Amino acid sequence: MSDYSDELNQSVIYPEKYTETFNLVESIKEKLKEEESKEEKDEQRILGMRKGLTAHQENLDNLRKGAVGFWDRLELLSEKSIRLREASKTLKDLEARGDYSKEGKEKIGKAKEVLKRTFYDLRSGIESFRSGFREDLLSALGDKVGEEEVIGVVQGLEEKVNETMNHLENDIQQLNDTFSEKQEKSPFAKNEMSVKLWNRDPDVDLYQGNYSPCCISIESGCGADSSESAISDYLTESAIQVVNVVDKTRGIPIVAAWCWIGRDDQGESYFVVDNVEANTDYTKRYPKVLTLNLTKFIKDYAKNVGIPESRIRKGTNSNDLELYIQDIEKDISIVGKPNREGGYYLEAERVFEDQGW
Q: Are 232 and 218 in contact (CB under 8 A)?
């Protein structure tokens, strides 16, 4: 989207009621003009219409003040997303300290409230943006760039928004459960769990995105793009590995950390945790124990393949568990030549592209 920042900076998006109120004001003006042009004027009717026009015009002026540029709206969503990551990190850091004194519990409680408010603020912003962004974008760019180019931009943004909303629905349920005062007894309390690498077994691993519900489930294709198959790409790419937490009692993977080896611009190798998908029935009940054990396994695994802990990074998008691993802070690309022309759908490779929309 940054390629179109100039055009989008010139485009203004008005609040939802603006068009309706504008049309109402114009309609009253026309009727008032007709009424005032009559030979026999109804002064009381005219007076009432003028009062109504003044009230609706004031409302229209207030709505006009609430108008924002399309690009500003994108920037605001990006800022809200960053604030959410910061709130989540603050809470995770406090919980990791294990301070259960009165003061420690108060800090955790306040951090939870901040996370809750920040999350719902972002959710409201995304849902509002989603409801009309297609028409807004077509209006903003329609007379400035070619029709085919506009459609391509709209489809690309639509894919991003749909992917975000897929994850958001799971996050909403998990957050609601996390802050619920009533917690039901876990049906998994006695189940045996283990952390392991996937086996690249098509009978199981083609459905990784179904066991840990996400946008690359086998029927979804690749995010919102059904023309590709991300899970098939990952299964056949030796540079990609999946670290699973498995419920051995049920015989199913319940957490999937999508990992790959990459290099930065200087040729330095990194172990990248692209993102972590999970069955939130488990993560809402055992976030700490899952985070600790998965983090430890990944750090040991990276060490065994020759990459020190200082060069382990994690993507910042679409994580159902926040691991105790440093966020990716620069461009890192997966090693080797991809099997699919144009590369793969990888969250962590898109981090800095996404920050600019």
A: no
